[in-house]
Amino acid sequence: MRSNTMAAGTVAELSDSLLNGRNRYQFLATFLVNISPFVYGIGIGWMSPVMRALQTPDSPLSFEVFVEEVSWIGSLIGIGSLAGNILAGFLQDRIGRKPILLALAVPNMCFWLLSYFAQSVEYLYIARFFAGITGGAGYVVLPMFVSEISDAKVRGRLGSILLLSVNIGILVGYILSTNVDYYLAPFFVLPLPICYFISNLFLPETPFHLINKGKFGAAEKSFRYYKNIREDDKSSMLEFEDIKLKLTKERTLNVKGLHYKDFVAPPALKAYAIATVLIFATEFTGTFCFASYMSDVFALSHTTLDIGMCTIIIGVIQIVGTYTTTLICDRFGRKILLLISSLGCGICLAAFGSFTYFAERYDLSSVGWMPLLLLSLDVFVCNIGLVGVLFVVLVEVMPAKIRSVAVSAFVIVLSITVFVSLKIFPLCMQYWGISITMWSSSLVAFVAFVFFLFFLEETKGKSMLDP
């Protein structure tokens, strides 16, 4: 027993352990702020089977919903996300990261209240819009918050917890919709955003933002908290003084603000290209669409397995994939994960499309488990790279001077692609068929693989102050 305790203590004190003295409050803060994306994920996962149920005679609601309306219910989360992106991007440098983090609880609760009181399809439209605001604002402010409180050695793992939280929430949502009555589900979930708000009241603002606002005393306290440094430990504060000096000097040299030349410099243009390919690869390989329309995908896949069981298994695979990212992201780097992810995704989607093509022409019921296997592999490889390190890479590739503005802008691009992909995905499956839809997504993944192979540079260990 004593040797086990000593071993646990040794692991906790490793310099890159999330539980050592230096990192534990960074991990705690990251855990607390990720309650919001967890609840957001529950809404996504819960709505996926619900949208299919709304189109059947056994609909839990009193009104009928058609395919075109389902595509709007699914895609309006993208419009809400766009609104959240713009609001958070505009406000985060003005009022700080923390107020926006606290505000995420409000639209989160609105989603569940509107879903509960829905009297027509318009209620569900507005509910999904509010859910999108939560996700969109969170996708802007959470990566910035986590990157600004984290040490470089653990930043990749802490940053990847965002998508892990969403995926855990999606799985909980799948299970909730399968086992709990439509009108009971909101009562299980609504306490979570309230707990999120209360717990995050006690977190300090990030030291980076406080320094930029000239609040050096508060910034020092924040730095000491997140790095777990005692007040009498003067030597450990040299890092803070270095950060303060660099940020203050940068602010002094740029009193007039950013110049358009900062946004068209070669490093910036290269970062834009990487961010664009990364976002398009993540969304148009169908990763987020699968989470929203998982039940419909399996219904068209000619599987002989229970659709509800398949959906829950995929939810588990998503979690395993993003959790794997948190374990290996800072060890092997971002580029290798994106290469494995995009290539594996392309192969799996091509195979999935081929299976459904032949299943429409021949009896493949003897291998009716194949769609679950192929989609499980696809979801796993997507989540270890394209999904798992999306926001980590998006923050790290941007030059420090334009990072806040550029990341906000590209999260807006992400929201637009979310809306477009969610709007067209059910329509593509209806008019093109599932096989052509999957082959098209496969092509996007292969193009992304080639781009990452030749143009993406590793960002592991990059300082947040590097140009």
Automatic annotation (TrEMBL):
Pfam families according to UniProt: Sugar_tr (PF00083)
Gene Ontology MF, one: sugar transmembrane transporter activity
TM region(s), chain numbering: 27-50, 70-88, 100-119, 125-146, 158-176, 182-203, 271-293, 305-324, 336-357, 369-393, 405-425, 431-456
Signal sequence extent: none
Residues annotated as domain Major facilitator superfamily (MFS) profile: 29-460
Predominant place of localization: membrane
Swiss-Prot/TrEMBL keywords: Cell membrane, Membrane, Sugar transport, Transmembrane, Transmembrane helix, Transport
Gene3D superfamilies recorded: MFS general substrate transporter like domains
Assigned GO CC terms: plasma membrane
Topological relation to the membrane, as annotated: Multi-pass membrane protein
Localization per Swiss-Prot or TrEMBL: Cell membrane
PANTHER family assigned to the protein according to its UniProt record, in alphabetical order: AT22075P-RELATED (PTHR48021:SF33), PTHR48021
Name this polypeptide is given: Facilitated trehalose transporter Tret1-like
Lineage: Eukaryota, Metazoa, Ecdysozoa, Arthropoda, Hexapoda
Gene (UniProt): LOC111599391
